[in-house]
Amino acid sequence: MRILKLTEQERENILENLLKRSPNQYGKYEATVHDILEDVRENKDQALFAYTEKFDGVTITADTFQVTQEEIAEAYTLVDPSLVQIIRKSLKNIRDYHQKQVRYSWFDSQPDGTLLGQKVTPLERVGVYVPGGKAVYPSSVLMNIVPAKVAGVDRIIMTTPPGKDGKVYPITLVAANEAGVDEIYKVGGAQAIGALAYGTESIPKVDKIVGPGNIFVALAKKAVYGHVSIDSIAGPSEILVLADETANPRYVAADLLSQAEHDEMASAILITTSEALAEKVSAEVDGFVQELSRQEIIQKSLDAYGYILVAETMQEAIETANAIASEHLEIITRNPFDIMTRIRNAGAIFLGEYSSEPLGDYFAGPNHVLPTNGTAKFFSPLSVDDFIKKSSIISYSREALELVHQDIEDFAKAEKLTAHANSIAVRFEQK
Is the overall model pTM greater than 0.70, yes or no? Predict the structure, then answer.
């Protein structure tokens, strides 16, 4: 990996380079996505069947569109029972973590006759998109469905592209069933997002769409936002490791590569105060790359978006980490908890040398659907909050309103909204 001295100019260059990975750079595909969405809006199921045949090479009909209970049962016979048990252990950790996020309605009444509160209501219908294609991600199935179930969503509808045999990956079906999905449909790509956003004869319109996908899925989610809510428009994966001279270079190198293998646009960055560590990590990376199965993808990722930055001070390293606002941030230092208190921007923070990033991907419990491309400065991980909505509750007695009615009327008149003022005033007209 390239080793650079961390300077203000180098920081700006890296930030500019990382922004090239943003989904906002996908403009050349927008017209294609728009046409697909309009076709689905107009032709509904028939458009979905046509696109599935065109893009996936599979003929789907109204009779084979929805995954059946028989297909789910068959999936269990095709997945190693030990893996099913691992999925169940992971699911329990994810559920336990998200149950601590549950919010409740609250009301606050005062002796003067005012009652204020907040009513928390789960979303009615949620769509979960699950990619197919080159890789299978049962962990993402759990991470998207479980918080929706914990929140109390009435109906969770999953869409995923079928394989060439017209079936869904068995492990995807097992994970979805274990997590508590209600319906699964065999459709992927932008057309699946259109179906969830607008509704078809088979797939109902949902209130929110969550889940990762390719460029076309990301652009489709962006386009339908407003018709429905979405979780985020996710960019390529990224990891940033903050380390000092106490870090184990072999551990650091392995952790950097755990994200570089996702795709060629993934980013892996080490910021350290130790030149010796930088050199050792670079050597370990070179050794690992020769051994790992996704060698070509890893090397392209490192060449384009991989950096080892040597900082003069840990404060300088922390400031750079906050500027990058990485999806995953590992802190492997003498006192990681102290460093953590000075981190403002990160999707998930991993503390200490035995808390490597894949722990969060698969098993620990916190959600692995995280903000990318610097959006950790203002976005949070997927959570139970994403599957609820809140309504304000306001109730005043006549006596309570009488105490403040003139203030409200004066405020409304100051904004030249006399009908607003009148709505209060009529309640206190002299008879």
Answer: yes
